[in-house]
Design a protein that fits this description.
This protein has 154 residues and is mostly helical. The protein is built from 7 helices and 3 strands, in the order H-H-H-E-E-E-H-H-H-H. It has a 3-stranded antiparallel beta sheet. The termini are far apart. The relative contact order is 0.25.
Amino acid sequence: VDVTSEVAAALFDVCGGNDAASRRDAAMLAIFLSSGIRRSEAAALDVGDYDPESGRLHIPGEKPENDRMVTLLKPARAAVSEWLEVRTSAAGPLRRPGDRGGLIRVRRMTDQALYDMFGRITRRAGGPGLSLRDLACCVEGVSEALAPQGRMKN
């Protein structure tokens, strides 16, 4: 499935709230769209893997020689910064699960939880059967998708 800027914008619209879960989901989408990261890699991210000054994200591989660095686009940095305002920059997993009441838990999200969360987002957005793999192919869509929502910070 081709992820156009309109599809990406619809996904971000679903994550447009100011609650912790919406900010977490928007940051997750922004990271997927701007880095091509895999689910298992996203689940393994820690706060220390992200440098807010440079926007660089260290993506640990299964082996040290498979580690890589990506620089997030400015809109993605803004989304991650908004999430870190709620999550705090204390050490630990970057992605944390939340319950139905909006309470963010202090534990790591599994890659299956990321898959399930993305499924809920695409269903609410009316997305055409998107997968997280589809997002890996769409890097430029994040700028256009985030800008109209006021998430773009200069």
